[in-house]
Structures are given as C-alpha cells and as structure tokens.
Amino acid sequence: MTSSLALMLVIGAATGGGPLTEADAVALALQNSPQVKSRTHSFDEAQALTEAGLAWNNPQLRLSGMRYDELIDPMVDRRSYGSHPLYHSSIALRWSPPGLGERGARRAEGQANEADARMDLAIARRDTAALVRKLHAQILSYDAEMALDREVIDQRGKLRGLVKSRLDQQMATLLDHSLAEVDYLDARTELAEMEVRRRAAYDQLVLQLGVPEGEDVKLAGGGETCTVAEPGAKLAERAQAANPRLRLLEAQDRAVGAERTRRRLDLLPWFDYFQVGYGFSGDNNPSYIAFQLQLTLPLFDWKGPHRRALAARHEALSERVRAENRMLSDLVLRTTSAQAQQAALVDRYREAAAMVEGGLTHLREALDKGKVTNLFEVVQLQTRLLATKRSFLRAHLECKLQSIELDRLTSSGLDN
After folding, report:
1. Phi–psi pair at 92, nearest 5 degrees
2. Nearest partner of 377 among 367, 369, 368, judged by Cα
C-alpha cells in the first residue's frame, strides 16, 4: 500500500493532477522500468570495473634471512648469528610496473565493456520510451474510434426505429428492416472489438508505467498533426551518430588496436620489477641499502599468430560497422518514406471526411425530423462516412507510429 501511494503521488506530481501526457508517461515508465534499472546498475558496474582494471600493482614487502630460533628459545647456541632475530637479514620493497602498452589495452578493454553496458542501457531506455509512446497514441486513437462508433450506433439506432415505424405503416419492406438490424449490430460489434483492443493496449501501458492494478490512469491527447519528417539522408546521419550499437563496435575496434600495440611492445625489453631494500649487519658485514631491478629481453617472436588474429578481428569489426551503417540507413529511409506516405493519406482522408461531413449533417436533420425517404442511400452514406473517418484515424495513428519509430532510430537512448 505504501509503494502504491508513493507511485500515485509521483504520477500526481508529474501530471499536476491532470491526465497523463505522452512525455509524463515516458518519464514515469523510465523511472519505474525494472529493465532500465537493471541496465543502469550493469553500466555502473562496468565503469567501476574499468577503474579497477587501471589500478596500479601493489608493492610487496619482502623479508628474508630472519632467524626464528631467537624467538623460540634464547638458550640455543647462536654462535656468530648475533643477539637479535634480524641479524644478517634484509627487508625490501618490490614493485612490478605494468608492461608496455598494458594499461592502454586494459583501458580500451574496459571502455569496450562500458560501451556494451551503455548499449544495453540505451536500447532498454529508447525501446521503453518508444513502446510507451506507441501505446499512448494507440489508446487515444482507439478512444476516437470508439467515439465515432458510438455516434454511428446512435444514428443507426434512430434509423432502426424509423424503419420499424415505416414497416408498421407498410412503407418499408422486411429487407429494409433486416438491413437496419444488421447495420446496427455491426456497429455494436465494431465498438466491442475496439473496446477489447483499447483494454489490451491500456493494460500493457499500465504494466510499463508500473501503476498498481486497478488504478485508473487518464491520458491527455497531444493534439499534434502528422507532418512529413526531415529528409531521409539527414535522419540517417543522425541515426548513425546516435546508434549505441555502432558506438560499441567502435569501442571494440579501439580495444583491438590497443591490444595489437601491446603485442608489438612485448618484443621490447622492459622491467619486471624495481626493488629497494635494507640489509642488517652480521658476520663482519655492515648494514647496507640495495637497489635492484630486473629487465627482461625477449629473444624470439612467437606471437605472430596472435597479431594476425587481432588484425583479422579489426577487419571484421570494420566490415560490421559498414554493414550496420548500411542497414541503419536503409531502415531510416524506408521508415521516412512510409511516414511520408501516411502523412499524405492523412491529408486526403481529412479532405474526404470534410466533404462527407456535410452529408452527415443533412442525414442527422433528416433522421431527427423523420423525413428520410430512401433508406438504401442512408445506409450507404453512413457506411461511407464511417469508413472515411475510420481510415483517417487509422492513417493518422500509423503516421504517428512511424514518427515514433523514426525518433527511436535517431535517438541515442540516453538523451532524457
């Protein structure tokens, strides 16, 4: 109950107590999505692992030559070993530096892992936002179609009553009566089907928002019109610049380049460790300070196959980048074309609906006054008007969905 109350307070704060707009719905879904939260934690983990991989090696404290018999039994004959356990022993501090190019390779590998986690987070965010926007648009479109169906049911109910009265007066036939009944039942069936679709979309939206079951969420319409998007070439460039999968492939290629550099640097001599120590006096030897280092010089180059494998991986990643760019550009261009076609359909259906609207006005007046003479023409006009308005609403919805898809393709997923 406490979490439900807190969630409803969040909804109220986001909407100001009014209906939920598209932007509010997206913000609420991103805030409550378990997938987004999980990917966020994975991204934080990848960043921490990158920092951990760049940590310097810990120095080692080394103690040698210490005599434990001094600590165990002071009566043991020590001969010339001295009177304390550190007699003739040494203590040193040793540090092993990273190999040539090793830190750069670890940094690039960590950044590639970060890019992988960032890609998962970006895809989860942008897919969630796109899904919520599509569900929001679908529900509003279904509401508009349901309002249209109710209006049609009302008009066909009036026509049904008029046909019945004329049948009683023997001014209509049984065929007219059957047609009126079938048209009335068809309108009610269409309304019932639309209610089922609306309920399914609403339940899915509530699930994405994280709203408790049984809570009523009202949606606010955006009032936007369907317009033609920007040129496809420009949108394709934006999609390529924002695509998280391309950023992952580029980070992986940089990691391969850093590893190739490290493999080449393995052929150069480099230090294994540096050490500074202090030796205690004993047996005519004074105390001393010693500096020590170890340098490794490779004699043979047996890592040629490793470098060839890395070069082949670099070429493979380059080809994947080119293929991803081509596929993304094609998808953006096809979506842009489909959206432009739907925008043109919306304009045509809007004009047709305006023309048929005049006929609807005369039909309402005739039905209200009971002056309809040709029932077949009435049914034709109702069917034509219903089809035109429904086609307009569905074309507008499809145009909106295509616009949302374009926004998804051109978004990095981390913008909001």
Report:
1. -145, 155
2. 367
Q: For residue 83, name the pLDDT band (cuts at 50, 70, 90).
A: low
* 279 belongs to a structural domain: no
pLDDT in tens, 208-225: 999 887 788 899 876 666
Query: How open is the CA angle 377-382-386, to the nearest 5 degrees?
Result: 150
Rounded to whole angstroms, the Cα distance separating 28 from 66 reads 67
The answer, yes or no, to whether residue 372 has pLDDT greater than 60, is no
Q: For the chain, percent helix, then strand, then coil, each to nearest 5? A: 70, 10, 25
pLDDT score of 201? 93
The Cα 98–Cα 39 span in angstroms is 32
- Contacts of 127 by beta carbon, 8 Å cutoff, 6+ apart: 408
Helix 244-265 to helix 304-369 angle, to the nearest 10 degrees? 180
Task: Look at 99 and 10; give whichever has higher pLDDT.
Answer: 99
CATH of the domain at 336: 1.20.1600.10
Is residue 337 assigned to a domain?
yes
Round to whole Å and give the CA distance between 138 and 196. 13
Any domain includes 181: yes
- According to the model, what pLDDT value does residue 226 have? 75
Burial of 363 (0-12, 13-18, 19+ CB in 10 A): buried
Q: By residue range, what is the domain housing residue 323? A: 17-60+95-220+228-264+305-409
Whether residue 1 lies inside any domain: the answer is no
pLDDT digits (tens, 9 = 90+) for 172-207: 677 777 777 888 888 889 899 999 999 999 999 999
Q: Which residues contact 207 (CB under 8 A, 6 or more apart)?
A: none
